[in-house]
């Protein structure tokens, strides 16, 4: 008897209704349909947000590369010990001559020009018999054109990228 009372206190000894409480098939299908719609909208939102994130990262990387290239060119054109800057409209390159180690006889030349799809800086020994190439550094990739433009006494360089972006700076 004690055992039966403890079971009935816990609710185990109730009478079972003939109508079992639960969900109908229509209610279950409605819940599944609404849940599916919410999940599809959620996944679509997550996917579009991720694609937008990837596009923003790619755009930021491209802008950083352009900024770094412009800073490198500016540093080359405004550095110490420059003896002469010669923009060449025909060859579309900029020649920068500078003294090496404060010695007036040793001159190096840096050429800024396009090589293939890259904008490069080449360092040459000027005055040596072979005018030898010492170093070639890539400044910017995916370059479509690099042109030197002269307007009166001013020179400009124009960089057109494969993406269609154009950069014009005064030398």
TrEMBL record:
It comes from the Bacteria. The chain crosses the membrane at residues 23-47. Keywords: Membrane, Transmembrane, Transmembrane helix. The keyword Membrane applies. It holds the Pfam family N_methyl. InterPro entries: N_methyl_site. This is Prepilin-type N-terminal cleavage/methylation domain-containing protein.
